[in-house]
């Protein structure tokens, strides 16, 4: 199992502008890579880590305990952030982090079924108690439904051909493993595509993971829910995305919250005062040094918004 390397760590920690006595939310706790650095900077403050993966929580507990005691870990999907804060009797927080990438251990542990490089039962559920899995989708969705998933969530050029071959394959037997799906994908693409740099199954696997975990709808809801909980005069939300669909959602919601747009009345144009400001107008991306040690950071984009 490879070590999970937190992406854009330095840039994220700097971007959160951490106060020693502040309250900070890591809504994607994972293996506590970012959370560990936040906790090191807190004195009387509080770190709240949220994750729906019990295995990740167990690992994080070990790591955070060695740093300090002023943290709480909540097992939940971050879409329930309003309920989480209500239960903790917290109205406002000083900083929030969302790192939307799947952690390296989840990719590398065969039984989780996230990786196209490890032969394993195809699963992809972040929450192991959830019913819908990648296996369920592959063996029950129509050609049209599969095509839409692969196109919309994976930008897969050969989505229709792959979907047709999936449906044809399962007439004989159910698709049960990652390598069965990889073989179908490879058989669906022309040789010129297979010769390109990068794994031919990457986009389909990404699309399936997003669909299984309803990631884009959950992201939209959570961003809209968390913005009002940022403390006035400096509360910040930092979001790291790895997919164009995710980044588009973050960009649009941040723009709506922070960029002044005039309303036309019968009279002159009137500017609306916005409660938020963009900390960075363009997304922050990984530098050459990080790209060399962590290839998974190549598609990462960091956007930060602050409440005025």
Describe the structure.
There is one protein chain. By secondary structure, this protein is of the alpha/beta class. It has two domains: 190 residues, Rossmann fold, CATH 3.40.50.150; 82 residues, DNA polymerase, domain 1 (Orthogonal Bundle). The chain is built from 14 helices and nine strands. The strands form two sheets. It has a seven-stranded mixed sheet, sandwiched between helices. Strand 1, helix 2 and strand 2 form a beta-alpha-beta unit. Helix 7 packs across helix 8 and helix 8 crosses helix 9. About 3% of the residues have low confidence.
CATH homologous superfamily descriptor of the largest domain = Vaccinia Virus protein VP39
**Second-tier CATH architecture of the largest domain:** 3-Layer(aba) Sandwich
Task: Find the count of extended strands (DSSP E, 2+ residues).
Answer: 9
Helix content: 40-55%
Number of helices: 14
Mean pLDDT: 91
Strand residue percentage: 5-15%
Classified by CATH, the class of the largest domain is Alpha Beta
Shape from CA axes? Answer: globular
Summarize the structure.
The protein has 308 residues and is α/β, with parallel strands linked by helices. The chain has two domains: 9-105 and 215-307, Vaccinia Virus protein VP39 (Rossmann fold, 3-Layer(aba) Sandwich); 131-212, Putative methyltransferase TM0872, insert domain (DNA polymerase, domain 1), CATH 1.10.150.170.
Q: Helix and strand layout, with pairings?
A:
Elements: H1 9-16, E1 23-26, H2 33-40, E2 46-51, H3 54-65, E3 71-75, H4 81-87, E4 95-99, H5 104-108, H6 134-140, H7 143-154, H8 159-169, H9 178-188, H10 191-194, H11 202-212, H12 215-226, E5 236-241, H13 244-258, E6 262-263, E7 270-271, E8 276-278, H14 288-293, E9 301-307
Parallel strand pairs: 1-2, 1-4, 2-3, 4-5
Antiparallel strand pairs: 5-9, 6-7, 8-9
Helix pairs in contact: 7-8, 7-11, 8-9, 12-13
């Amino acid at each position: 199992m490879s070590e999970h390397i937190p992406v854009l760590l330095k840039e994220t920690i700097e971007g959160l502008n951490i106060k020693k006595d502040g309250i900070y939310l890591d809504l994607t706790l994972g293996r506590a890579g970012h959370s560990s650095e936040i906790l090191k900077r807190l004195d009387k403050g509080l770190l709240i880590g949220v994750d729906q993966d019990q295995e990740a929580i167990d690992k994080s507990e070990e790591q955070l305990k060695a740093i300090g005691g002023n943290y709480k870990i909540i097992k939940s999907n971050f879409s329930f952030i309003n309920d989480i804060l209500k239960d903790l009797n917290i109205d406002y927080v000083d900083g929030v982090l969302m790192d939307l990438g799947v952690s390296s251990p989840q990719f590398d542990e065969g039984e989780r079924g996230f990786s196209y490089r490890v032969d394993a039962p195809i699963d992809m559920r972040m929450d192991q108690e959830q019913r819908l899995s990648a296996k369920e989708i592959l063996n029950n969705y129509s050609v049209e439904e599969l095509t839409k998933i692969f196109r919309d969530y994976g930008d897969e050029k050969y989505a229709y051909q792959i979907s047709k071959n999936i449906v044809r394959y399962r007439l004989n037997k159910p698709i049960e493993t990652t390598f069965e799906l990889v073989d179908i994908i490879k058989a669906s693409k022309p040789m010129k595509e297979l010769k390109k740099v990068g794994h031919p199954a990457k986009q389909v696997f990404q699309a399936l993971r997003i669909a299984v975990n309803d990631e884009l709808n959950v992201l939209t809801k959570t961003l809209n829910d968390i913005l009002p909980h940022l403390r006035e005069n400096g509360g910040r939300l930092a979001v790291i995305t790895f997919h164009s669909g995710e980044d588009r959602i973050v960009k649009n919601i941040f723009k709506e919250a922070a960029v002044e747009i005039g309303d036309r009345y019968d009279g002159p144009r009137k500017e609306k005062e916005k409660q938020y400001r963009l900390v960075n107008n363009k997304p922050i991306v990984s530098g050459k040094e990080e790209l060399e040690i962590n290839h998974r950071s190549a598609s990462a984009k960091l956007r930060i918004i602050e409440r005025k």
